[in-house]
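Protein chain data
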Amino acid sequence: MRVVPKSCLLFFLFSSFGFLQLVAQEDYKIRIAGQDSTFVDAISLDEVELFSQPRFKSREEWYRYYVIRKRVLKVYPYAEMAANRLDSLDNRLNQINRKSKKKAYTRKLEKFLAEELTADLKKLTRSEGRILIRLVYRQTGISAFNLVKEYRNGLRAFLYQTTARLFDMSLKRIYDPYEEYEDYLIENILQIGFSQGVINSQKAAISIDYQKCYEKWSLAKKD
């Protein structure tokens, strides 16, 4: 049986759809006291959301959280890039009328991005790859499998999915922090990272109510 390098999966994941803290502002207000008026300095601060870490019952759970955090911070920029590239690809393809030219454009972009990203992507572990697949869904609203199917064809999607299973990955995997505890941990890590400016904040393509997720899993951990 031929063994397919794990880098191939990650390359196809990206190439298939086109790309294989607080800041204080100084302000002034006037205070009027009787007949006198004086200038007083005032500081206007941006709103800051505070996010609590999940409750952990053991040191092992705490350690697991920080391992996941390291992986999320590493692969999130690729998921963010996925959303940006997909938007650019859609906009460009909408401007091209001929089907043959659309295919030629997609192939040309794939080649360029493969050369640009392959060196980095092949360094990802299986665990990082699994998180990346979920984050791609978070940022694009489409599973990696459907991205391949839509921008390539069903046969390629089937082959990529089969290859992914060899590495304990599913390209059909979605992101659901309401039902999957690890996805909730990932969302918590993202929200803290956004608020602290550790990672760039990009709006998710799917609807996520973090407070509801937090309340559900906080209650679940009490049981």
About this structure: The two ends are 47 Å apart (CA to CA).
